[in-house]
User: Fold these one by one.
Assistant:
Number 1:
Amino acid sequence: MSGRALRTVLPGLLLIAALALLAASLPAFGASRYAQTLVYYLAYDIVLGQSWNLMSGMTGYVSFAHGALAGLGAYATVIAMNAGWPVPAALAGGCLASVAGSFVVGASSLRLRGVAFTFATLFFQQLALLILRKLPLSGGPGGLALQDILPLALPQILMVALAALATAGVLILRRSRLGIRLLAIREDEDAAAALGIGVTRLKLGVFCASAAIAGAAGAAHGLFTASLYPDDVFSVDVSLTALAVPMIGGMATAGGPVAGAALLVGIGELLQIFAPSLHLVVIGALLLAVVLFMPRGLLPFLAAPLRRLSAAPQPAAERGTAP
Amino acid sequence: MTLLDLRDVTKRFGGLQAVGGVSLGVVQGEVLGLFGPNGAGKTTLFNLIAGSFPPDAGSIRFAGQDVTRLPAWRRARLGLARTFQVTRPFRDLTARENVLAAVPRRGSTTPAAPAARLLAEVGLDGRADDRAGDLTLGMLKRLEVARALATDPLLLLLDEPLAGLTGREAADLLALVVRLKSRLGIVIVEHNVRQCLPVCDRAVVMEGGVVIASGLPDAIRTDPRVIRAYLGQEAAE
Ligand SMILES: Nc1ncnc2c1ncn2[C@@H]1O[C@H](COP(=O)(O)OP(=O)(O)OP(=O)(O)O)[C@@H](O)[C@H]1O
Ligand SMILES: [Mg+2]
C-alpha cells in the first residue's frame, strides 16, 4: 500500500493497538473475573465478526458456516493438544482444519453466483454437526475435553490479539487495491472480470483466509472452554453471531464489527439479568431493524450525517468506512 | 502487428442468430469503427471478443493466442479491455476506486498510470472522490473508459462511448481515442457515425448479425448497402 494510504490507517492501527494492550493488561489492573470474561467474549465476537466481514461483508456472499468453521478449528486444536502437540502447532492445525473445510465448501459453490454459496454454507454447518456427533475421534455427542488445562490468561490474551489483528487486517484491506477488488466483486462480477479480476479465485481465496480467522477464533475458544460439546460448538447460534456482529455494526468496515460486538455483548449481559430466554428474539429484532432502517449498519448510519455536515471533501477510501 | 483475429464467429440466442459468421481483424495502431442499426449484433460481438460467453462456432485469436475458450478475466489480463454500452460502475465505490480496481495486463511494461491521471484524461478530475452511483450518465460513460485504460490494454473495445455525452465531451473523448491509438488497437461502436467516422482508420458495418460492408471510412459512407441499412437514420447524409 502507498505511503498516503498507510498514513490514513495509522491512527486506526494505533487505536487498535492501544485498546488491545488495555484489554490484555486487565488482570494486571486487578479487573474482576467478570470483567475479564466480558472482555474475552467481546474479543471472541469481534474475531468471529471480522472473519465473516472479510468474506461476506466485502464480497456480499452471505455465509452461514462461520460457526462451523470456528467449530472445526476448536475440535482440531483440542484433538491435537490431547495428542501431545505443542500449543502453537495445535492452533495452526485448528486454522488449517477450518481452511480445508472452507475450501471444500467454496470450491464447490463459489463458481456460481448468488445464493448457491449461502445454501452450501448452511448445508456444511448442519453436516459438520452430524459428522462430529458420530465421529469417535471427536468424542461423539458426549463431547471432548482438553486434558491439560492451560492457564486462562493464554486464550484470553490470544483472543484479544486475534481481535486486534483481524480488525487491523480489515482496516488495511479496506484501503488496499485487494480490498477494492473484493468490493468490486460485491458490486458487479462481470465488470470486475472485465477488469482482469479473477472473480472465482479471489472469492475462494478470501473465503479461505476468512476461515483461517474463524478457525483461530474457534481454536482459542476451545482452549478457553476446555470442553467441546458438538451441539454447542456447531450450534447455528455461532454462525448467527458471526453474521450479526458486522451486519449490526457496519459491513465492509473495520470499526463496524467492533461496535456490533460491543452492542451484542452488552445486550446479551442485560438480557442475562432481565430476560435470558429472549436472547435470540432480541438479536433477531435488532437485525431486522438494522436491515430495514440502516442497511449499512450502525456506524455508517451514524457517520452519514456527520459527513454531510462537514463541508470538507472526504479522502477516497474514507467513504463508507468507520473510523 | 495483428492484435485480434476473428474467424467465422457465430452466436445464437435460442432461435435468433445474433452474430452469424463474422470474420475480422484489428492491428495495433488502428481505430476500427463498428457500425450498424439497433440489434445488428455489435454488442454481442463485443461480448464474444471479451469473453462474456463463448461462441457457438468460430475462433478468436488475440495477441497471437487462441482465446476462444478463455474466461473474460484471463483475456483482460492479456490486454483486452472493454467498456459496457449500459454502464456497469461499481456504484458504492468512488470514481478513483473504480479505476484502482483494475488489474494491469500481464507483462505490462509501462508503469501503471496513476488513477488521478486516468481520471483527468477522461475529464473526471474533480470527481475522483465522488461515489460512482452519484455520477451522471455522461460521467459514467467516461469512467468506463478510464477504468478500461487502467488495465493498460493492447486492445480497447468501446461500446457507444459517446452516448450521453455533450458535444464538447464527445469531441474530447474522440481526441483521447486519437491520442491513444499509437499504443493500442481500438474498436469503437457508435450510432453517431458522422461524428465517429473521422477518427476511424477502417470501418465495418453489420446488419442482422453479419458484416454487410467493410473498408475505408470514405467508401463506407457511400456504400449503397450501408445507406439502405441506415435508411431513415443516415441516408440523408
Ligand atoms: N443475452 C441475450 N439473450 C438473448 N438475446 C440477446 C442477448 N443479447 C443480445 N440479444 C439479441 O441479439 C441481437 C443483437 O443484439 P446486440 O445487443 O448485439 O445488438 P447491437 O448491435 O449492439 O444493438 P444496439 O445498437 O441496439 O446496441 C438482438 O436481437 C438482441 O435482442
Ligand atoms: Mg449494442
Number 2:
Amino acid sequence: MSTASYQDQFAALASERKGPEWLPALRQAAMTRFAELGFPTTRNEDWHFTSVTPIAERTFKPVRAEKSSVTLDALSPYLFGAEDWHRLVFVNGRFDPALSMFAGLPAEVTVSTLADALKTQPELLVEELGKLAQYVEQPFTALNTAFMSDGVVIHVPADVVVEVPIHIVHVADSGAAGAALYPRTLVRADRHAQVTLVESFIGLDRATYLTNAVTELTVGEGAVVGHYKIQREAEDAYHVYTSQAIQAATSTYHAFSFASGSALSRTNIYTRLNGAGAEGRLNGLYCLDGSQHCDHQTFVEHIAPNCASRELYKGILDGSAHGVFNGKVYVDPEAQKTDGKQSNHTLLLSGTARIDSKPQLEIFADDVKCTHGATVGRLQDIALFYLKSRGISAVSARALLTYAFAAEVLETIEVDAIRLGLEALVFERFTNGVPA
Amino acid sequence: MLRISDLHASAGDKPILKGISLDVRAGEVHAIMGPNGSGKSTLAQIIAGHPGYEVTSGSISYEGEDLLDLDAEERAQRGVFLAFQYPVEIPGVTNAYFLRAAYNEIRKAHGEEEVDPIEFLDLVEEKLKLVDMDPAMLHRSVNAGFSGGEKKRNEILQMAVLAPKLAVLDETDSGLDIDALRIVANGVNALKRPTNATVVVTHYQRLLDYIIPDHVHVLAGGRIIRSGGKELAHELEAKGYDWLLEPAGVGA
Ligand SMILES: Nc1ncnc2c1ncn2[C@@H]1O[C@H](COP(=O)(O)OP(=O)(O)OP(=O)(O)O)[C@@H](O)[C@H]1O
Ligand SMILES: [Mg+2]
C-alpha cells in the first residue's frame, strides 16, 4: 500500500529537519525499515484481529503549521480538575505554551519538549531515544521514529520523588483533519525515583486524523513509575500507540490504559522485567459502542527472576463494537520464580458487539506461576430486576451494573482525580447512551 | 389495596399459578404458607414485576391501578416492595450508594427533591438501629459475601428506608437465628401503619408469633386451598399440609 507517499513526505521534510547529526540517521533507518515492512496485514499474527486498511488506504499528511484556537475552557473537562498538575499541551502536534503549566516540580527534575531537549540534553537523547521502542519489527513505531515531530522528555534523577503527576495532553481539533500526528515521549526515572505520567489523547472536533504515538520509559532500580494513558480521540480518528518500558531490579511500573474514543485504535503496552524483584502492573478499561474497533496488546517479558506481573483488562462493548485483547507473556529460562497473572473480562451490552480475547504465554522456565483467564458476560436479568424492584429505573439500573463491572479495574487507579474522573465518565456514558 | 383475581401464570410453558384470588386491605397482615414448590415465590415475584413470568389470565389491581401494566420500577415507586427469598449480590455497588439511588429515584418519581449523601446517612443510621446492623455494612457491595442472615436483614433495612405501602416478605425468616428473627419481626412491626399492608410468605408458625397475621392462606399446586385466621397457622404447625392436600384425610 501507500508506503511510497510516506517516503515522498519524508524526502520533502528532510531539508527542514534540525537537530544533532545522529538524528537524521535514526530517522532514515526507521524510514527505510517502514518502506520494507509496509503496513501490517491481518496475516501478521500480532494484527490478526485488527485490519488497518482504513489507515493504509489513506495518506495522512504532516500537519500544516497553524495557530491554535483551542482554549483552556475547551480543554478543562479533560484535565481531571487537577489545576496543580504539571501540564504540557500539544495542539495538532504543536506545543502550546499558553495552555501548558509548569509549576511545582522539584528543581532536579527536567521536563522539556523533545524539540528543546534536542538542544539542551543531547547526551540523554542519544543514549535513550529509539533504544527501547522496536522500529525494526513494528511498522507504526518505524513510521513514528521517521516522522516524530515533537513530544516530551522527562528525566527524574535518583531518589527524587515527584508528588504531582505530569500530564501530557495531545489535543486534536478540526485543524488535524487529514493529518498524521507523531508524538514521542521519553521518560527516564533513575534509581529510587518516583513519578507519575499521564498521557491524554483528546479529539475536540469531528475530524479524521491519525495519531501514531510512541513512548519509551526507563524505570531504574527501585523506581516507581505510574503511567496513565487516556484515549478520548475524535470518533472518526485513528489511533495507534506503543509504549515500551524497561524495568530494573525491584522497580514498580503501573500502566493503566483507558480507551473510549477513535474509530479504530490499537494500543500496545509493553514492559520488560529486566532486573530481579521488579513488578509490572498493566491494567485497562475500554468502553466502546457504535462501530468502534479497539485493540489492546500487552507484552510482559519476564527476563529476570522473582518478578511479578499483574494484568487486568476489562471491556464494555455496546452497539456493534469490536474489542480485541491480546495478552502476551514471555518467561525467559533465567526468570525463575516468576509470578504472573492475567485476566480479561468483557461485558457485552448488545447482541452485535464482540470481543476477541487471546492470551499468549511462552514459558521457558520451570519454577513459575503463571495464570490467565478470560470471561465474557452480559448484564444479569436478575440483578436488573433486583435494582428495578427498588424503584431504580431501567436506564439507571443498567448504568449502575455497567459501572459496577468496571469498578474493580477502576479501583487499581492510584491517582484519585483520574479514578474519580473515569468513574464519572463511565457512569455518564452509560446513563445517556442506553435507551430506556 | 391489593386485589388479585383468578390469576394464572406460567414460566415458559410451565403453568405455575392456577387461579389465585386474594384481597389485601390497608392495615392488614396476610400470611401465605404452603409446601415447597407450590408457587409462593412466583406469586410474590409477579406482584413485584419479575419479567420472567407470564400472566396468562386474571388480574391484579393495586390502589385502583392495573398493577400488571406497570414496570417493576413503577410499582416500587408506587410503594410495592418485595423482600427476596434469595437476595441478589451486586459486586461493585455499595449498599449505601444502592440505597440512596433507590430512595432518590422514588422521591424523584413523587416530584420530591433528592437528598444528598450526608442527609441520607442520617436517615439510614436510624434505620440501621432498627435492624441492628453494623454501619460498616453500608460500605460493602450489596449482599456480596453477606451471610444468609445478613442478606435477610439487609432486605428489611431496604424496606425500612424505602417505607413501602405494600410489603411482600418472601421467607425473610428462613435462615435467621432466633434473635435475628425477633429483630426482623420488630422491624416489620415498627413499620406497620394503618395505611400499609404486609404479606408474609413463611414456612414457620414461629414468625407469626411476632408478626400476628389477620389472615392465613395455604397455597398448594398453584391455588389457595384454604384461608383462615391466625389459628390456621397453628393447625398447620401441628398437622402439616397432608390433611388439606388429601380430601380423603378430612375427618380422620
Ligand atoms: N422461571 C421458572 N422456570 C421454570 N419453572 C419455574 C420457574 N420459576 C418457578 N418455577 C417452578 O414453579 C414452581 C413454584 O416455584 P416457587 O418458587 O414459586 O415455589 P415456592 O412455593 O416459593 O417454594 P419454596 O417454598 O421452596 O420457596 C416450582 O416447581 C418451580 O420449580
Ligand atoms: Mg419460595
Number 3:
Amino acid sequence: MKLVVLLKRLPDLVEDLEVDDSGKALDTEFLKFTLNEFDDYALEEALLLKEATDGELTVIALDGEDVDKMLYTALAKGADKALKIENAGEASGNRGLAGIFAKVVSSLPHDLVLTGVQSAEDIDGQLAPMVAAILDEPCVEVVTQVATADGGVSIHKEYSGGVVAEFEIDTPAVVGIQASRQAPRYAPVSKVRQIQESTTLETVAGSAADTSVFTVVQMTPPETGGGAQMLGNIGELIKVLESKGVI
Amino acid sequence: MTETKSSFAPLTAYSPRKKAQSFVQKDSVVIEGVDISGQWNKMFDAREITSYDLTHMDKLTAIPGAESMGWCYQCAQCIPACPVDNAGGDYGPRKIFRRLQTGVDIFNHSDMWLCTSCQNCVRVCPKEVDMVQIMPAARAAAVLEGNVPDELVEMFQNVSEYGNPMGQSARKRVKWTRGAGVDIRILPKDAQPVDVLWFVGDYYAYHDRGNDAAQAMARVFSRLEIDFGILGADERCDGDSQRIAGEPGLFEELARHNIEQFEKYEFAKIVASGPHAYNAIKNEYPKFNGGSGFPIEHYTQFLSQHLDRLTPLLTRPFAKKVTFHDPCYLGRHNGEYDAPRKLLQAVPGIEFGEMFRCKQQGYCCGGGGGGMWLDGFAAEHQTERLSENRVKEAIQVGAEVLAVCCPYEVSRFEDAVKSTDNDGKLEVLDIIEILDQCME
Ligand code: SF4
Ligand code: SF4
C-alpha cells in the first residue's frame, strides 16, 4: 500500500504567543516550532499500516524553520521517503495549504493520504477534506483506526458521545486522523542523527492550486474577561446590584 | 517399560527435550589414570540447562557493556541488596540471569526497566556483574528496537524537544529566581567571570518544591558572599538519567550543549545542585571535551568546605530529629558520604540519627536510572514504591525530618509520606532548606 502523510509544523504552545509589530502575524522571534500533534498520530497510524501491508510511506512538509529535523525524525521512525516543498510561499490557512499539498500529492502514486484531523492554529478540520476535494478522492474525518480490508480500506470514525462507526472506502482516499491506535513511537536521537548524516531530503518546488485564500487583516490575542464572581445568596446579589447602581 | 534403577532417574523429569536414553551410563571411566567408575558417572552428560533457548542471553551479553551479565554464578548475594526486590519486585541480577537462562526475552520484559542503577548489587557481587554498565547498554538496544515504556517515551520526547523532562519552555527556566529575594547573575546576560558556575538543574528550576530549594541555595550563597552565576535559559538537562534509561544519543546532545555553554564563561568551578548532574559532569562529560572535563562539586561538598564561615551564620536553632537519605549518585557512585553529614551536624539544635540502611548500604529512592518517570510502570511490578519503603524506615527510626540533597527526592518522598498514610509525621527537606531556615 502506498501511503502519503502530510505534516505541518506549528508554533509550540509552551511559549507565550505574541502578535508582532505588523499586528497581522505571530512574533516568531522566540517561537519554537513543533510537529502538529494530530499529524504525529497520522504518521503513527501510517507506520502501523505500512508495517502491516509491507507498504511504502512518504512524508511531505512545507519548508520552514525546524522542518528538516521533523522530516528526519519521520524517516527515523520508519518513513521511506521525505519530501520538502520549497518556495511555496506562506500558505494562508488550510485552503492555501491544501492547494500546495494537493499539487504535490497528485504527482505521487498513492492509495491513502493521511493527515491530522486538525491543528491548534487551524481548528476547522478542513485540510483533509480540501485536499480530497482538489484530488477528487473520497475523505473520512475524525478517524481513529485505519486497516486494510479486501480491496479497500476499513476505517473507524469517531462521533460525539464516544460513538464509533466503521466505514469502508475505495482508494485512493484522504483521511483526517484523530488518534492513532498506539502512542506515537519514539525516534532515538542517535537514529535521527544517523539518518541525517546518511540521507538528503528530497525537495520539490511548490505552487498553489487554484483555491481561494484569505488574507489576514488583523491578529489580536483573545480578550480576557474580568472573571466571574460566585454569589452565595440573594442578599449578596442585591448588594452587587446596588453597588453598580442598578437598583 | 523397564526403568533403570538409579537415584538420578528423576532428573529426566526436568529435562523435557531429553530422552532417558541420552544419559550416558558407562561401565567404567578412567580419567587421568584414575578409575572413577560408578553409577554417578552419568553426570558426565550435558546438564539439563542446555535444552533452553539462549538466544536472548546471547543477544544481551553480546552488547558492548552488557557482557558481565553472563558472569553470574547465582550466589544470590545481590538479591537482599537490591531495593527493587526489597519492594516486592522479584528482581536483582541473579533473578534476571536465571530468567535469561530459561529463555526469557528480556528485551520484551519488565526486567529491562525496573533497575534504578543504584549500584548496591555491584557492591556485593563477587563476579563483578555490573548492572550500572549492563542496563544502559541493554536499554539503548531496546529503545532502538522501539521497546520502551510509554512513560519513558514522553520523558525522552520532552527532554529532546525542550531540554527538560517536564516539557517546559526553556525561557521559564529562570522564573524561580524572582522569588529568591537576592540578586542572581544570569551569565548569558552578564558574562563577567565568576567563582562559581551553579548548575541549577531541572527539578530546582521547574518543580515547585525544587524552586524552594533553589531559592534557599541562592540566599545561602549570597549570605556567604559567594560570587556565582547561572546559565539561565541556556542550561539544559544534564542527561545522566536519560543515558542510563537508554538514550545515549540524547545524552550526548545534551552534554555537548552544556559543555558549549560552560566554555563560554570564566569560572573557578561548577557547583551542581543534584548528584546526577554532578555525576554526569564529573564522570561522563570529559568524554566529550577531550578528556579535560570541568572542576565540579556537589553543593554539599562545596558548602562543607566553607563551614568556618557558614556555621556562625546558622543562628536560628532547628531543634528536630533528623535523619538523612544518601543519594545513590553522591554516595555509592561517587563515594561522598561525609559532606552532607558535616552540614547537618553544623545545624544548631539538631538531633541527628542514621537510618538502618545508610552510607554504602543506603537504600534507593527509586528515582535513578529513569525510575523518576516510571512510577506507574513500576507500580505494576512491585508491591510498593522504593520511596514508600524508605519513608517507613525514616519514621521507624523516630525521625521528624527526612533530609535529602538530591532534587529528585523531595517530591518523591513527600508523595510517599502521603501514600503511606503518614501525612504530618515526617517532613521532607533539602539540606539547603534547613540551612536557609537557620539563617536569620
Ligand atoms: S551477586 Fe553476582 S554472581 Fe552472585 S547472584 Fe548476584 S549477580 Fe550473580
Ligand atoms: S543496580 Fe540496584 S536496582 Fe539495579 S539490580 Fe542492582 S541493586 Fe537492583
Number 4:
Amino acid sequence: MQIVSDIQAILGGFRVTLAHMLRRPVTIQYPEQKRIPYPRFRARIVLTRDPDGGERCVACYLCSAACPVDCISMQADEREDGRRYAAWFRINFSRCIFCGLCAEACPTMAIQMTPDYEICTRDIMDLVYEKEDLLIDGCGKDASYNFYSHAGIGVTQPRGAGLEESKPVDVRSLMP
Amino acid sequence: MTAFSLDITLFAVKLGLVFFVILTLAAYLVFAERKVLAWVQDRKGPNRVGPFGLLQPLADLIKLLTKEDVVPGGADRWLFYLAPAMAAIPAILIFSVIPFGAPVNIFGRDLPLVVSDLNVGLLFFLALSSIAVYGVAIGGWASNSKYALLGGIRGLAQLISYELSMGLSLVPIVMLSHSFNLADIVAAQKTVPFIVYQPLAFIIFLLSITAECKRIPFDLPEAEGELVAGFHTEYSGMRFGLFFVGEYINIIVLGGLAATFFLGGWHGPLLPPTVWFSLKTLAVAFFFIWMRGTLPRLRYDQLMHLGWKVLTPLALVNILITGWWLALK
Ligand code: SF4
Ligand code: SF4
C-alpha cells in the first residue's frame, strides 16, 4: 500500500537524522585548530629569487596579462648590464581570486603561490601588496632553477656559456 | 500576615516564576534547536559565547535589542507595532491553564501548581490559539509588502484549517475524562496516559500543533525559499525577536499541552511531578526540532489536502469510534 511505504520512508528519514545526531561533527574549530593545507594550495603570492640571490622577475608582464581580474600591475626597468627587473610590482589581493594563472604564465618561476591563507585584515588597503611585501629571500618551488642559466644571452653571460648551449662557431672558419 | 495577603504573595511568586521559566526556556530552546540542527548536519553549532556557547541566547538578545527598528514606508504603523505582541501574548496566556505539577502544601495552604485552574481550560486554549492567528495575519497585512501579505494569508488559512483537526482530536480526551478542566484531565490519566487509548488522536494532535506553531514541515507562512521570511519579512530588531520568541514559547506551551492531554501530565514514577512534566514537554519540543532537521516543507495544496481531507475526517471517525467504545463499556 502507498501509505505504508510513505510512512516507512518518513521514519527512515528520522532514523538517518538521529544517526547523524550521534555522529562526531566534522567541524574544524578554525582559529584554535588549523588545517594544514597541501603544498600546492593556492594562497598568498610571493616573488622568489634565483639560487644566486637575484630577483627572478624580468618584468615581462605575462602574469599581469594572464590575470583574469587584472590585479597585477608593475613597471619594467633595465639595469646597467641590460638585465630587466620590475621597478615596482603590485598585487591587489582584495581582487585576486587565487586562480594561479599568473604562476602558470611566468617564464622565470618568479611568481609563485604559497599555502599561507591567513591574509585577512581589517583595512582593505592593507591587501595591496607592494614589491617589498611580495619579494622573499628564498627560491620557493624549483629551488635550483635559474632562468639566466638557460637564457639571457649577452646580458648576464657571454654567448655560448648557457647550460644547453654549444660554443658559438666562428663563421669564417666554416670553409667548404 | 493575613491569610489573604499570603495568598496574594504566593500567587505573585508563582506567576513570576512561571513567567521567568517560560521565557528562559524559550530562549534556550532557540539555542537547543541550533545545537540539535547542527548535530543533524554533522556540525557543532554555537559554542563560542560562554562555556559550550551557553550564553548565546543572551548575546542574541543584546543583538536584537540594539538593532534598528525599521517600519517600512506605507505600513500601518499601529497594527505593525501591535502584531508581534498579538503573536506572543496568547502563547504565554495558554500556559496559565496548564498544570505543571502536583498541588503542593506551603505554609499550611494547598497551592495548585497551575496559574489559573479554569474549569473550561481546554476551551480557553482553543480560543486563545485562534487569537494567535491575528498576530500572523495582521503582521502580514500591516507590513505593506507582497511577501508579508502572502505569508499572512497563508498563515491565516493554515492556522484556521488545523485548528479544526486539533480541536476535534481533543474531543475524545474530553469524552474519556468527562471534563474540560486540564487538572481533571491529568487526574484521569493517573494510571494510564491517554496516548494508550488514543494513539490516533495523539498523532493528529501532534501534526496539528506542528502546523499551529508554523514549524517545518508546515512552515508555509514563512517559507524562506519562496516568501523571503513570510509574514515577518519586514520586521527587524526586537519586534522580529518577539515573533521569534513567540514561536518558541508556542512550542513549549503546545509541548506542555501534548504532555497534559496525552502523556499523562505530571504523573510518573520516581521523579517529582514537575520534573516529569518538564521531561515530557521537552521531549515533544525535541521531537519538533528533530522533525525540522528531517522533513522538507510541504507544498501548499498538500498542506490543505492533509488538513481537510485526511486529518479532519480521521479525527471525526476517531470520535465516533471512541463514543461507540464508551457506550459499549
Ligand atoms: S592568482 Fe589569479 S587572480 Fe590572483 S594575481 Fe594570479 S592570475 Fe591574478
Ligand atoms: S612575475 Fe614572472 S610573469 Fe610576472 S612579470 Fe615577472 S617574470 Fe613576468
